[in-house]
Amino acid sequence: MNLRPTAREQPEVNLTSLIDVVLLLLIFFMVTTSFVRETEILLQLPEAETAPVASQEESLEITITAQGDYLVNGRQVINRRPATLRRAMAQEAGERRDFSVVIRADARASHQAVVTAMDMAGRLGFGKINIATVEQPVGDVR
Questions:
Q1: C-alpha dist (Å) from residue 120 to 62, 115, 138
Q2: Percent of the chain with pLDDT strictly greater than 70
Q3: Residues with Cβ < 8 Å from 114, sequence gap 6 or more?
Q4: CA 136, chain centre distance (Å)
Q5: Three-class SS of residue 103?
Q6: Close Cβ partners of 87 (under 8 Å, ≥ 6 residues apart)
Q7: What pLDDT was estimated at residue 52?
Q8: How is domain 57-131 classified at the CATH fold level?
Q9: CA neighbor of 121 nearest in space, from 92, 142, 141
Q10: For the whole prediction, is pTM greater than 0.90?
Q11: Between the ranges 20-24, 28-32, 102-106, 120-124, where is the mean pLDDT highest?
């Protein structure tokens, strides 16, 4: 009787097929990945100036009240719908689109109302949109 233990062969792990699969998956994902650039908006950020905004004859002024009502050059728009605002702006501007649009909004006006006014001005073809601000005195903190 042979009581000596027989030497067992150590199992080999063949990594060649595993490396092939990983490389194929890497190539597959590289080829199928799409690099989509999201829509971008070209913004020209304003620089601080001390000069006053252009006179009323050279600009279209849109005022937004705290309730969300629109006024175009001092005249109230019938309702708050974007299409109505667009028609009022087009009527005031006529065919000209070379002057600036000044948007004045109450501090309590909704952000959506301001964005709607900016959107309608952009859709009508106005290239210069200004947002008017009021300078608070230094000691006045609210």
A1: 11, 9, 35
A2: 80
A3: 64, 103, 105, 131
A4: 28
A5: strand
A6: none
A7: 56
A8: Nucleotidyltransferase; domain 5 (3.30.420)
A9: 92
A10: no
A11: 20-24
- Phi and psi at 99, nearest 5°, equal -95, 170
CA dist 59 and 97 (Å) reads: 10
Q: Per this entry, what is the length of the chain?
A: 142
Q: Map residue 63 onto helix, strand or coil.
A: strand
Which tokens go with 26? 């890497």
The span from the CA of 142 to the CA of 129, in Å, is 28
Q: What is the pLDDT of residues 53-105, one digit of tens each?
A: 544 457 889 999 888 899 998 889 998 899 999 999 999 888 888 888 899 98
Which residue matches tokens 């252009």?
54
Q: Are 107 and 113 in contact (CB under 8 A)?
A: no
pLDDT tens figures, 70-82: 999 888 999 889 9
Q: Which residues pair with 71 in a beta bridge?
A: 63, 76
Helix (H, G, I), strand (E, B) or coil at 67: coil
Residue 105 near residue 61, CB atoms below 8 Å: no
